[in-house]
């Protein structure tokens, strides 16, 4: 017997619909994930958090190329200035960072060599909700991660 509990914290942006999927792994239906389908058909995997939580916004290079010597830009759509976290010249750079993210963002330094440029965001607030863009200019690669925040 399976029980599914789905909690949607915040109203979805227009154009999003939801589906919950149960995948079969080794004959056991135990892997559950939500996915979010954008109106134009592309899939997104949103991240859910409650206020005060620490979250990881995933972003990685599929080919496991080291990102140590690359520039990594985390920005948030519709934010001015848009910079959430910037990594360049082999280190984190906080210039032009939006003040509301001060002291709350980091990359996983040990993971950069594996092409993992996921962003850690601590002490999430309601106003952190939105679309985050991870962009690697050298490779012209980008992904967008949607963050939903609910009151804890
Ligand atoms: C679909 O929409 C998403 C989010 O707005 C966008 O990133 C993506 O490029 C679009 N895909 C196509 C095929 O238009
Ligand atoms: C990237 O690093 C974070 C932190 O160590 C980890 O939680 C996540 O699973 C890693 N992602 C991949 C694809 O390895």
UniProtKB/TrEMBL annotation:
Does the keyword Membrane belong to this entry?
Answer: yes
Per the UniProt entry, the signal peptide is: 1-19
Single annotated GO MF: signaling receptor binding
Which part of the chain is the Ig-like domain?
Answer: 52-146
Q: Which SMART domains match?
A: IG, IGv
Q: Which UniProt keywords apply?
A: Immunoglobulin domain, Membrane, Signal
Kindly list the biological process annotations in GO that this record carries: regulation of cytokine production; regulation of leukocyte cell-cell adhesion; regulation of T cell activation; T cell receptor signaling pathway
State the compartments where it is located.
Answer: Membrane
InterPro entries for the chain = Ig-like_dom, Ig-like_dom_sf, Ig-like_fold, Ig_sub, Ig_V-set, IgSF_BTN/MOG
Q: Which GO terms describe its cellular component?
A: external side of plasma membrane
Q: What is its main location?
A: membrane
User: What PANTHER family does the database record attribute to this sequence?
Assistant: BUTYROPHILIN (PTHR24100), ICOS LIGAND (PTHR24100:SF151)
Q: What is this protein called?
A: Ig-like domain-containing protein
Species of provenance = Hucho hucho (huchen)
């Amino acid at each position: 017997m399976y029980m599914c509990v789905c909690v949607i914290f915040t109203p979805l942006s227009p154009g999003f619909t939801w589906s919950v999927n149960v995948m079969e792994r080794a004959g056991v239906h135990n892997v559950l994930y939500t996915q979010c389908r954008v109106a134009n058909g592309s899939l997104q995997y949103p991240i859910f958090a409650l206020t005060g939580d620490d979250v990881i916004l995933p972003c990685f290079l599929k080919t496991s190329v080291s990102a140590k010597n690359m520039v990594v830009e985390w920005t948030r759509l519709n934010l001015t200035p848009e910079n959430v976290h910037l990594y360049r010249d082999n280190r984190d750079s906080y210039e032009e960072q939006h003040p509301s993210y001060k002291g709350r963002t980091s990359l996983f330094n040990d993971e950069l060599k594996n092409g993992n440029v996921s962003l850690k965001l601590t002490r999430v607030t309601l106003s952190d909700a939105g679309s985050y863009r991870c962009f690697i200019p050298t490779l012209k690669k980008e992904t967008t991660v949607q963050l939903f925040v609910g009151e804890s």
